[in-house]
Amino acid sequence: MNNTTVLKELGLSDKEAKTYLAILELGSTTIKPIADRAGIQRTSVYNFIDRLVERGLVTQAQGRGRMHYQAVSPSHLLEIQRHRLHLIEENIPNFLSLYNATPHKPRIQYFEGATQMRQALYEEAHCKHRTAFLLPTKDLMEMIGVETMADVNTKRVAAGVIGRSLRVRDKAMPFPTSAQSTKNMLTVRITPPQYKSSMGIGLYDTGKVGFFSSKNEGFAIMIESQELYEVMSTFYEMLWDMSEPIKAGQG
């Protein structure tokens, strides 16, 4: 694969690629040598240089009454691609939700890594009246951080959303705003000793169910499905009835 083809694969047009390669080979130069080396008419090459400047691949500076152009280090091409990849990764959950948005199947969003999982956790603050969570606190804190968990509760309270929290007994750990209290708008129970899990579950009255893994697997899934919401709510109520209430201020 030649250099022009590689640059075209990275999103440059044929003439943008030829212009960039000409400037790269010439070093600091003016318009006529660029046009000659690229094999492009001088009147047209200005447009391609302007586009390369916009992309951050070429710099321009006035000198001795003429404009001089110089190519930025080719390593900048890697930075551009990394930035594009980051944008795609950041927006994959939204793209997936659009992909799954049909009347007859649930909407599914997939979140990978701590940053995207934090985004998913804030679903609590979008609830209308109430939310419920099955929380392996230790595992989730290791994954997304204490500050995020505390902030999620703070925003839930600010939105006037009542919370219930089932804490997995062998992974229960307190954090700011985690205690059962009227101020925190939160009721807490501790699961039976036989219940073991590293997977957190969120039930939101927006009709969504969230699943949050530990740091070991590092992902979350948010599913908008009335049927799933109903069956998981039934499971939650059964486990809630089996779980141990705690005193106000604990948790």
Description:
The chain is elongated. The longest helix is centred in the middle third of the chain and has 25 residues, at 75-99. The mean pLDDT is 87. The protein folds into 2 domains: 3-72, Winged helix-like DNA-binding domain superfamily/Winged helix DNA-binding domain (Arc Repressor Mutant, subunit A, Orthogonal Bundle); 89-245, 2-Layer Sandwich (Endonuclease, Chain A), CATH 3.30.870.10. It is 45% helix and 21% strand. Strand 7 and strand 8 form a beta hairpin. By secondary structure, it is an alpha+beta fold. The relative contact order is 0.11. It has an 8-stranded mixed beta sheet with strand order 3-9-8-7-4-5-6-10. The chain has 9 helices and 10 strands.
Average pLDDT figure: 87
Question: What structural category characterises the helix and strand content?
Answer: alpha+beta
Tally the helices: what do you get? 9
Order of the strands making up the biggest sheet: 3-9-8-7-4-5-6-10
- Classified by CATH, the class of the largest domain is Alpha Beta
Instruction: Give the N-terminus to C-terminus distance in angstroms.
Output: 61 Å
Q: What's the shape?
A: elongated
Give the fraction of residues assigned to helices.
40-55%
Question: What summary fits the major beta sheet?
Answer: 8 strands, mixed
Indicate the low-confidence ranges by residue numbers: none
How is the CATH topology of the largest domain named? Answer: Endonuclease, Chain A
CATH homologous superfamily annotation of the largest domain: Endonuclease Chain A
Number of domains: 2
